[in-house]
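Two entries, shown back to back:
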Amino acid sequence: MQTAKTGRASCDGCFFRANLLCALNIEEACATFRPAEAELRPPRQMRFVFRQERRARAGWAFPTADEQAALHA
C-alpha cells in the first residue's frame, strides 16, 4: 500500500495507531490502513419525511346500503 504524500504507508501514519485503536504489533501497513489525516465518519443517511395525506378518504370505498339496494332493485 502506498500513499500519495509519504510514498510508503506505515503504521506510524495510520489513523488507528494514532488514536490508540490498533491491536496489531507490526511495522508495515495492514489491510485496515487509513491515513491519519482522513476523517473517518459514516456517510450521512437520508432523512425520513412523512408525506402529506393527499386524499380525505380512500380511493375506493364499499357502496352504501342505499347504493347496494338500488343496484339490486
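entry 2 starts here
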Amino acid sequence: MTKGVLALLGSGETGPGMTKIHRSLLARLSDVRAVNLDTAYGFQENVPQMTTKLVDYFATSLHTKLEPIHFTSFEGSTDLQRTIVRQQVRNATYVFAGPGSPSYALAQWLPLGLVDDLGQVLADGGVLCFSSAAAETLGVFSAPIYEIYKVGAAPYWLDGLNLMAAVGLDCVVIPHFDNKEGGNYDTSCCYLGERRLVLLESQLPEGVATLGVDEHTALVLDLERDSLHVLGKSHGYWRLNGEVRVLENGSTTPLDELRSANSSKLPSKPRTTQAISTDQPHDLAQRALRGGPDALEALAHLVRLSATGGEGFIDPAPLVDGVLAARLNARAAGQYQLADELRDALVRAGIDVQDTPEGAAWSLRETR
C-alpha cells in the first residue's frame, strides 16, 4: 500500500524558509487537495484572521488553494458537523495544522477520533504537515504548554493523538526546541526550559523517547522510504534514557535506528466507513433515509455537495431534492436542529427554500 509523509515543523510555518519545504511536500502529490485545520488556534479571538493569513500564504507563495476546515469546539458541534469535518480530512491529500494550544486542540480532536482520519491520509499516500502546537499533539503524550508556562502548573502530560505510532515511533514531540525568546532565562524545549523537560521525561514510561525539532526546521518522515530527513534552518533531537542523538540538518536517518526495542508499527486501519459516490445524490438521499451506520456519512456528503456543487457541473435538481428529502425525514423524526442545518446548507449554496402547505419548494437564487 502506498504510504505518505508526515512533516513536523518546529515553527515558522509561513516564513520564507518554509516555502521551499511546503513546495517539496506538495510536489509529491499528483492531486493536490490541501486543507487547513483551525482547531489549535480555535480558542483565539482572531480565528478568521489567522485562517486568512494561511490561505493567502498558500495562494501567493505556493500557488495552492487551501480550503479551510472550521472545527473549534467538539461540544459545540453536532454529529453531522463532526462527520463533515472527518470526511473533509479523509478526502484531503495535504492536511495542515499549526500554532495555538496543544491542550485545546487535543480536547477537540481526541473525542472526534481525528487520529483515524489522519492515519487514513497517510495510508492513502497523502501529506500531513503539522507545525508548532499541532505537531506537539501527535506523540503518545503531549505537554500542556500554556498551563505549565503561563499558568504555572507543575509539569504533567496529557494523552496525545499518538499518530507517531503509525511510523513505529514511541515518543513525544517537542517543537520550538531551540527557542531563545526568554533571553536571560530558559525558554527552550517549547518554552518549558530544559529543567522542566527533564522533569517531564522522568514521568514517561520506559522506552518512550522525546523527538525535538528546532524552530524554522522540518522533520520529514517518509513512510514509503521509512526514513526521517531534516530540512530547514536547524536540527532535530532524539532523547532516550538520558542520551541525546542530534539529527543534523540535511541528514537522513532510517527510522529503524530510532525505534526502541518495545515499539512496533501499528497495522494500518481499514476505513471504518463505506465509500460513498459523490455524484449520485438520489442514492445518497436513500442511504440517509434508510438510517444505519452509513446514514450520517451519506447525509454529510449531501451537505458538502450542496455547498460545493459537486465535482464539475451537475444538475442541481436531484441534489436539492435529496437534501430536502433528508430534511423532511429529520423533521418527521423530531430532529429539528438537523433539519435546520440541512436548510442552511442549501441557502449557503444559493438555493432558496420555501415551506408551503404542499411541501418544500426551492429555486436557484438569482445572481447579479
